[in-house]
User: What shape does this take?
Amino acid sequence: MAEHRYDPSEIEPRWQEVWARERTWEVSNDGAADGRAGRSRAGGHASSSYVLEMLPYPSGEPHIGHLKCYAVGDAIAHFRRRLGSRVLHPMGYDAFGLPAENHAIKTGVHPRESTAASIASFQRQFRSWGISIDWSREIATHEPSYYRWTQWIFLELFRAGLAYRKEAAVKWCPKDQTVLANEQVDAEGHCERCGALVEVRQLEQWFLRITDYAERLLNDLDAIEWPEHVKTMQRNWIGRSEGAEVTFRCEEIGVDYPVFTTRPDTLFGATFFVMAPEHPDVMRLAAGTAAEQDVRDYVNHALNETNEERGNAERPKTGVSLGRTVTNPVNGEQIPMYVADYVLMEYGTGAIMAVPGHDERDHAFALAFGLPIRRVIAPREDGSATQSGEQDEGLPYSGDGVLVNSHADFDGMGNREALSAIVAWLDREGKGHSSINYRLRDWLVSRQRYWGAPIPIVYCESCGMVPVPDDQLPVELPDVDDYTPKGRSPLAAAEDWVNTDCPACGASARRETDTMDTFVDSSWYFLRYCDAGNDRAAWDPGVLREWMPVDQYIGGVEHAILHLMYARFFTKALADLGHLDFQEPFEALFTQGMVTKDGSKMSKSKGNVVSPAAIVERVGADTARCYILFVGPPDQDADWSDDGVEGIHRFLGRLWRLAAETAERAGSPVAELTAGAASAGDDLALLRKTHWTIDKVSGDLRRFAFNTAIAAVMELLNECSRLRESVGLDTLRFALGNAASLLFPFAPHVCADIYDRLTGERVWEQPWPEAEEALLESEVYELVCQVNGKVRDRVQAGADAGPEALKELCRAAPNVRAHVDGREIVKEIVVPGKLVNLVVR
RNA sequence: GCCCGGGUGGCGGAAUCGGCAUACGCAAUCGACUUAAAAUCGAUGGCCCGAGAGGGCAUGUGGGUUCGAAUCCCACCCCGGGCACCA
Assistant: This one.
């Protein structure tokens, strides 16, 4: 017998060749015209399924996280195909972005060139991994044929009033020399990209009106199949608060100051009023008072603080009196005004009513400044706590209770009831109204950088902001000599490009020189895949109906807020503009865990980076893919272990060798995989194990339990090895053929090879195997016999034995008798198919 | 501080609806093959007592519910993630 050696370096390229030559994974937008990949099992029009992994940013080489993401996505894509779906499984590149530009600054190499090199390396590796991609739909966001439509979408939003320019206090990254969106600054105030401490600057920038969609972005989370923690993160980020807007008037200067509060029921407890240092009226209020200089100093100091210092709730409260008062609208009290940095300009109205009796922060401030603290809510069980003693131990109290010290109309009322009553009163008096506030801010999308899609706007002396007409798109990114950011976009230096004619009046005008945040590019790419070649429109709505929304989206949790929120916003806005007829882009989401090495995140500085290319070179793509799925549940973090990789490699080798040997023993391949009529003995046992495996793997794939699916195939192989000499060749061929068929979604090359050797057929064209119900159950099983809940024996029981017979079997078991003898059986619990438990005394 | 995950052999993990804890893999030990090693194949395998049959103890800790708990409930400890002066 010829020597059989498992050689992935020979097997893998050979099958990749077949799939590339035959364009196996391409699907058309017209179901009837499809090739084999889209063929329905029944021969009719198959259901469509869109399986998508998050768009990769091509930088250098793909890393192990990409391998995991695509191993998961590809397994799902293959599984769905073989269940009879036409599967759209495309690939592209998020090709605009800072790393390529920073590289250009250092080396002078045009970002287009370094990006092209990275893309080529990604393509090469994705092919070497054997991922089943429809390459005919490949896109890259930096190509004019793509960003032409990014610009078109921007203009659609602009024309609808959803893109606007505004001056605001914005986050500025001093290292990247550009503004950032709120979402791109982390909790400590660092730039999400480069880690530099972010500054605040007053600048005019482009925003997208995502806040208009806050309510829908929140509510529609209920209807999609996403991991609960991702939904929670989005809910927290949107941060909806119900409350009221209440107007406090400063009589001295005759100006009304509205505040937002979630607790209008505590209005009678407001004893002072606080404004954010950035509030535009702060200096105006202080002007001419004794406090003016103090206020100026305080504001200057506060504005120079970093987010990190400012955001620390632990540090002592600071602030300065403005020397003015406002009127509390519910009782006419004059309460003093302060400026303090614990009040944020970006939230609510930039000013608050302070209720030290019932808010921790206001309480801390009142203590520091010797301001009155008044209880206006008493816990229900303690109605006597109405005394206005010098200090009230129970404050601040933020729970529910009964109103006290407020007004005869409300005292004694439950605070929730009082809340509505007070808001209704304010409304009648014209002093306030109920209101909802969101933490979410509008999305700042302009960037003062080169390597992005130009914002297609022209500034004209007489016409103002003019959108570039659709037929003049794309506004192509010009070449520049100097990419160094200088606080304005490098594009500003491209004079020939900047100077243009006004599309409206023809007079000379200037182009917008900022480019778009790269998250704009990736907020709609999943739509483009559906109709990637369309040069007349971004997509044909009819084609979208075939594929969208994405049935299964796969990616890392790090995008839980940024990308996933932006893409949802784009979908809703484009739907409102009549371009889409669905509301959510991603029906189901799966977030894969990180791959670590020695327990920590892989990084160049730690020198613990595992290169997928090196692994594939050493053991092959099938081993790498299987290993990454076998280490543990894919949604959890997994630690890379070279020993573990060897284990999988051995497993695939054993499978391949036994199959190759069996195929050789069997002579020429036989197309039909039949097990023969095994009715007893080892043949039946192996047949049963095969059907058990089919059932197990099918179920596990449905619930993303790839690790246990692979373990089940290992069990089947172990059984094959054990019984290889004692079963018929047909039975062995049947078991091994099914093992290959079931493992194909994880290890496509070796499984295609095995299946070909055994049957001469292509495994990817075979329907997913179905387990025979009758073979899943055996006619005898091992009955567990317990006494007082402890396992004392096991006996053979017939599948059809009734409860009484089972009890009898249990009582008769030798070791059970030893534990029961001389004691009284008080209860007998029977779980048919499983166990009998005798309770004795 | 608040909100999510998670804690099971030497290690990664399994146990899908409250019913055999430790599947599968790694590492380890022993054996076969070999001049030898690698590769491969076979066997052993939670801890403690016992020659064995068998028994006792084990799923972060302490309680509870139940005939029966890794799984449900209460309290606590530890690890990871998210949010955090958002009025």
